[in-house]
């Protein structure tokens, strides 16, 4: 796979060189079948202060996951143990990204994934059959089409289960005995039908706790996982940093020659931060919108604004477009949210525009688009 | 660990830097003393506590305990406010100072505290800094000086650690117990010196560090000279003796340069006498010692580190074992709360703790890995208030439950002696840890009233000794009809601790209650709250030395602009006046009551356009004023009626209030029933909106003059007319208001009104209640007939 020709290359492709360098210099103890030691996994995700010298090049490992470092460490240790890892939390808190980073670092592959939906069936998790072969040769291994869980067990790699709570509870439960016994029985294959998991196999699930229409997990399944609750970023400064980093990365992938503007990122970060927390930096109480005000949403609002500016606006970012995109992002669930954002502009942003001036003033003037 | 050899005195002085509360530090201090066997042990701590050392090291005294210092600034040495000051110096088993003191006793080494006396430290400290910080429980420890600097922030960032405490645990505790004492102290010295370099000189001065260090250095040199003199007498020239100095790491560098003569400083002369200073030792609890409970310095999780300290004696490294113990204990406690948790969860948690320790480069898991392990393996589902019970249980376990105990020789502060004396006099069990109950005939037996006063004072001082189960409650204006009080009381060490805690306020329970009241009243509050505090004074029977208290309440009343708060205050004053004979407590409330009434009367004319929800309170105020200006305070009557007249001038007067005022005027004979009826008619015959306000008007009217209804029949007729002229949905809206209006009548009166209403329609009351059922068929027929007649009529 070549990174340049994909909209979003998988983690192991995007960071292929970094991973290679880390593996090469890794002198820690590796759990069996892991591509690198837990310490190196930590370095890959949380970055390193000193550059790594490998093959005549020096690699500065960037921090890829912002937020709680201790949480990342717990995740790594969980994966080395006997239980699955379940990342829960509000939408847009980078659960999926963290699970991709973890599996790319641990197993070298982040694409062994079950994408959970309301229509997910057991076939999509375990295995199904190639019916032409099945008719021709009968139930033999050749005719079996392995699904991600099967592949994970067979190869000793991590299986990712995205949005596990979107799948019906009875389908989720097909994981229970596999996770505890580490064996999958394919009765059709008779005595060859036992697939024993190889070391290195584990499951990372991600689950949403806030969305409508999620299914509760059974307690039997819960017992087989260690849970990590991923919280939204609590500092506006860090959020600004994340927005800038992510937008620049997206722009680079789309070959847009623009850089994220620091002031605009700050505006967006503080807007999202304040609306989510319900209190402004000046101490105003704000009505919280019901729509999800995640950092990921802020990134996409900024990125859209950037694209608009790139193609229609001579390469400059317009605050008007920013507010227009913001409207689109918040008025998803109900109309009241827009009213709340309007109220926010009329109190907080008004005060900020008179105190800070500059971009904040433009931002306040752009409130005409809030309708 | 650094040794300075003073050539003059030929005394070897070894400085041991410490962090207060650290098992590893206590362990190493013990090792060094054991090894060096010095002739003298000097310790950081106010020197006026020196007399307590025998009690602190007594075998019967069990940690945690705290040394309590208090100072009454009667002469204004600290500030013009002449306040009461106090601070605590808590000791746990693993406090290095306590370890040193105990070791000193064991080996027969003389020990002494060398810091400035408490009051002098206060005088040397800048306002709002160090021990003069505005916190609930000031603490003598100044370890925060080690953790509040930029150097440390960068250090933590580089090491990937969350806080100073985690940094400390990793490098100085878990690794520290694997190091020799020499290495350990040299590491700590290095850290402390860097931390000190990062602290500006002005901060050192403001925190009082410089003066304290100068004093301590002078003390050390003085003792060194003394020791050298002794050695010379004994003619053992060449070895002048050894001194070990144990002080907070932050001060060691400063002390060393002073003692070795690199720096010079004039020690502070004692200016403040001993007379207003007190120092006691009091039992303490782990909970109070936990940094997480708002205790600013010292290590968090005392329960956890206590276990580590106990484990250190066994010769092995105790962290892994302690983490396992805590996991199992937490698991057990979680299961007891009927939450599902298996042994396998505990196994996974231990694996997690060990794994994290390895990943983070710690030889054994510590408190942070323990917490992470519980968070990861014990909490099922999203971590929130509903699911985080295991974490809360773990926190309790890590805090610990131990309570301290004092040896028999501990000095008893006068307030505790007074407490015991009072208990004896009143026949209460002062040393029983079992809860006892006592029933007091408050108004009949004088001794019972005295007992009640005493218990009320103990309650007010928040000693946790007694609680009132039943009895008249003046604060909440409840149960005024009761004549007995039932109290439950029980003694425990915390009662003593709490009494010592308030001993700065006075030598007896009564004196402490009086000063505490004065202090409490000094805070910002509204007049209503001030008056409520006065009811507590009333219940406590504190009727002497109360002049400043009245003045303060007077001030509060003067400042008060809120009508309702004033009403609340007035209500309290009246209640107390009414009950003072029964309670046999006579407060001088007359002046306050008059003052309060005057203010209320002045405010009244502006209270016309009030919100509906405030109308009840406002009506109540009017009625109250009417009642008292009619009896005791007739001089205010004229002003009151003038205010009412002024209110009547406002065309947008709240209808309820309007009714209320008319009722009062009627009651005082200033209006006739006819005048009131006229006012009522003006509502009834006005616009439709005006008509709807009649319900509120009636409510106000009946609140103050419900007898009007029974004079003649005109009010019943008006009511009838009113009810006849509102439509269905509107009636439903008005119904709550009407219910309130008729709520002021007794059931008998309601019957009478019903009978009058029935008579208006030519029936008797009973007939009304026994109306015949109209069958649906008949009703439909009647309606049809009506329609037919109407149609014909039009034709």
Can you describe what's shown?
By secondary structure, chain A is α/β, with parallel strands linked by helices. Chain A has two domains: 68-230, 3-Layer(aba) Sandwich (Rossmann fold); 236-369. Chain A is 47% helix and 12% strand. Chain A is built from 17 helices and eleven strands. Chain A has helices at residues 11-14, 16-25, 38-46, 69-80, 95-107, 122-125, 131-137, 148-155, 169-172, 176-181, 219-223, 236-253, 262-277, 295-312, 319-330, 336-356, 359-365; strands spanning 52-54, 57-59, 84-89, 113-115, 127-129, 144-146, 158-162, 183-185, 194-196, 202-208, 225-230. In chain A, the strands form four sheets. Chain A has a five-stranded parallel β-sheet. In chain A, helix 3 runs antiparallel to helix 4 (69-80) and helix 12 (236-253) crosses helix 13 (262-277). Chain A is globular and about 75 Å long. The mean pLDDT of chain A is 87. Chain B is of the alpha/beta class and 795 residues long. Chain B has 36 helices and eleven strands. In chain B, the strands form three sheets. In chain B, strands 1-2-7-3-6 form a five-stranded mixed β-sheet, with helices on both faces. A three-stranded antiparallel β-sheet of chain B has the order 5-4-8, covered by helices on one side. In chain B, strand 1 and strand 2 (11-18) form a beta hairpin. The chains are: A alpha/beta (371), B alpha/beta (795). Chain A binds chain B through residues 38-39, 42, 46, 49, 69-70, 73-74, 76-78, 80-83, 88-89, 209, 217, 219, 222-223, 226-229, and chain B through 158, 160, 162, 340, 342, 345, 348, 351-352, 355-356, 358-360, 368, 372, 375-377, 379-384.
């Amino acid at each position: 796979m070549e990174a340049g020709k994909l909209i979003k290359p998988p983690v192991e492709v995007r960071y292929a060189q970094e991973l290679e360098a880390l593996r090469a210099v890794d002198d820690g103890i590796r759990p069996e079948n892991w591509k690198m030691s837990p310490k190196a996994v930590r370095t890959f995700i949380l970055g390193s202060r000193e550059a790594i010298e490998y093959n005549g090049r020096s690699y500065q490992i960037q921090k890829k996951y912002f937020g709680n470092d201790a949480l990342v460490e717990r995740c790594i240790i969980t994966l080395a143990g006997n239980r699955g890892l379940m990342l829960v939390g509000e939408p847009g808190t980078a659960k999926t990204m963290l699970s991709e980073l973890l599996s790319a670092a641990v197993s070298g592959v982040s694409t062994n994934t079950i994408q959970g939906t309301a229509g997910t069936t057991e076939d999509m998790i375990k295995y199904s059959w190639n019916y032409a072969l099945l008719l021709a040769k009968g139930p033999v291994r050749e005719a079996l089409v392995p699904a991600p869980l099967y592949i994970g067990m067979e190869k000793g790699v991590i299986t990712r289960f995205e949005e596990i709570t979107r799948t019906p509870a009875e389908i989720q439960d097909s994981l229970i005995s596999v996770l505890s016994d580490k064996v999958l029985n394919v009765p059709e294959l008779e005595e060859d039908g036992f697939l024993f998991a190889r070391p290195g196999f584990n499951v990372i699930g991600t689950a949403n706790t806030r969305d409508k229409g999620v299914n509760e997990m059974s307690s039997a399944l819960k017992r087989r996982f260690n849970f990590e609750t991923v919280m939204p970023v609590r500092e506006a400064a860090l959020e600004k940093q994340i927005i800038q980093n992510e937008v620049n990365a997206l722009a680079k992938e789309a070959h847009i020659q623009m850089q994220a503007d620091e002031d605009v990122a700050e505006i967006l970060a503080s807007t999202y931060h304040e609306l989510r927390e319900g209190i402004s930096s000046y101490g105003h109480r704000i009505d919280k919108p019901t729509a999800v005000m995640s950092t990921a949403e802020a990134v996409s609002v900024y990125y859209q604004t950037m694209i608009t500016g790139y193609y229609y606006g001579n390469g400059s970012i317009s605050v008007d477009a920013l507010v227009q995109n913001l409207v689109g992002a918040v008025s998803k669930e109900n109309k009241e949210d827009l009213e709340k954002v309007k109220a926010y502009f009329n109190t907080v942003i008004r005060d900020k525009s008179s105190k800070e001036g500059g971009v904040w003033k433009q931002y306040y003037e752009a409130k005409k688009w809030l309708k | 660990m650094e040794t300075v050899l003073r050539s003059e005195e030929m005394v070897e002085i070894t400085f041991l830097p410490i962090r207060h509360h650290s098992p590893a530090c206590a362990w190493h201090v013990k090792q060094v003393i054991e090894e060096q066997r010095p002739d003298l042990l000097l310790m950081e701590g106010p020197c006026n506590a020196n007399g307590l050392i025998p009690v602190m090291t007594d075998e019967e005294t069990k940690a945690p305990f705290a040394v309590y210092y208090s100072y009454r600034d009667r002469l204004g040495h600290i500030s013009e406010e002449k306040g009461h000051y106090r601070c605590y110096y808590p000791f746990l088993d693993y406090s290095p100072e306590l370890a040193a003191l105990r070791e000193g006793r064991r080996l027969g080494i003389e020990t002494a505290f060398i810091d400035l006396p408490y009051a002098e430290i206060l005088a040397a400290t800048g306002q709002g800094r160090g021990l003069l910080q505005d916190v609930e429980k000031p603490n003598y420890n100044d370890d925060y000086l080690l953790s509040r600097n930029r150097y440390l922030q960068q250090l933590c960032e580089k090491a990937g650690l969350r806080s100073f405490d985690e940094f400390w645990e990793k490098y100085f505790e878990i690794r520290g117990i694997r190091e020799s004492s020499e290495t350990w102290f040299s590491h700590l010295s290095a850290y402390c010196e860097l931390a000190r370099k990062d602290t500006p000189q002005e901060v050192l001065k403001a925190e009082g560090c410089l003066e304290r260090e100068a004093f301590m250095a002078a003390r050390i040199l003085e003792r060194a000279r003394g020791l050298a003199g002794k050695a010379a007498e004994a003619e053992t020239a060449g070895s002048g003796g050894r001194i070990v100095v144990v002080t907070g790491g932050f001060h060691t560098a400063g002390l060393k340069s002073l003692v070795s003569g690199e720096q010079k400083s004039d020690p502070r002369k004692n200016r403040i006498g001993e007379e207003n200073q007190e120092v006691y030792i009091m039992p303490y609890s782990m909970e109070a010692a936990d940094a997480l409970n708002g205790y600013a310095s010292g290590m968090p999780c005392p329960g956890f580190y206590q276990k580590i300290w106990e484990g250190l004696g066994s010769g092995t490294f105790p962290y892994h074992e302690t983490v396992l113990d805590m996991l199992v204990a937490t698991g057990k406690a979680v299961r007891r709360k009927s939450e599902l948790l298996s042994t396998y969860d505990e196994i996974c948690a231990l694996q997690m703790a060990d794994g994290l320790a390895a990943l983070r480069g710690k030889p054994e898991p510590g408190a942070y890995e323990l917490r992470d392990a519980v968070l990861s393996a014990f909490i099922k589902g999203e971590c929130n208030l509903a699911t985080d019970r295991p974490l809360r249980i773990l926190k309790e376990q890590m805090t610990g439950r131990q309570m301290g105990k004092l040896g028999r020789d501990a000095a008893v502060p006068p307030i505790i002696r007074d407490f015991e004396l009072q208990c004896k006099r009143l026949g209460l069990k002062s040393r029983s840890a079992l809860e006892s109950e006592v029933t007091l005939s408050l108004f009949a037996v004088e001794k019972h009233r005295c007992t009640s006063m005493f218990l009320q004072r103990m309650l007010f001082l928040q000693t946790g000794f007694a609680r009132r189960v039943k009895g008249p409650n003046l604060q909440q204006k409840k149960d005024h009809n009761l004549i007995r009080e039932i109290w439950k009381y029980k003694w425990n060490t915390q009662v003593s601790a709490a009494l010592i805690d308030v001993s700065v306020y006075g030598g007896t329970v009564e004196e402490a209650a009086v000063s505490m009241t004065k202090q409490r009243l000094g805070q910002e509050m509204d007049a209503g709250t001030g008056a409520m505090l006065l009811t507590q004074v009333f219940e406590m029977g504190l009727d002497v030395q109360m002049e400043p208290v009245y003045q303060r309440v007077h001030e509060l009343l003067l400042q008060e602009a809120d009508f309702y708060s004033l009403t609340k205050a007035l209500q309290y004053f009246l209640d107390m006046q009414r009950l003072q004979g029964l309670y046999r407590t006579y407060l001088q409330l007359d002046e306050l009551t008059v003052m309060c009434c005057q203010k209320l009367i002045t405010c009244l004319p502006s209270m016309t356009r009030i919100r509906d929800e405030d109308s009840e309170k406002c009506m109540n105020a009017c009625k109250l004023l009417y009642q008292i200006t009619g009896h005791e305070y007739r001089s205010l009557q004229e002003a009151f009626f003038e205010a009412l007249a002024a209110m009547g001038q406002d065309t947008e007067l709240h209808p309820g209030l309007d009714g209320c005022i008319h009722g009062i005027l009627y009651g005082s004979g200033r209006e006739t029933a006819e005048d009131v009826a006229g006012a009522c008619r003006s509502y009834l015959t006005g616009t439709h909106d005006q008509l709807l306000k009649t319900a509120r008007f009636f409510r106000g009217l009946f609140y103050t003059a419900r007898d009007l209804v029974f004079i003649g029949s005109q009010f019943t007729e008006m009511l009838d007319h009113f009810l006849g002229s509102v439509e269905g949905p509107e009636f439903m809206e008005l119904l709550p208001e009407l219910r309130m209006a008729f709520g002021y009548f007794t059931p008998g009166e309601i019957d009478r009104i019903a009978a009058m209403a029935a008579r208006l329609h030519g029936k008797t009351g009973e007939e009304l209640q026994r109306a015949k059922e109209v069958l649906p068929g008949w009703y439909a027929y009647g309606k049809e007939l009506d329609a037919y007649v109407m149609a014909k009529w039009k034709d």
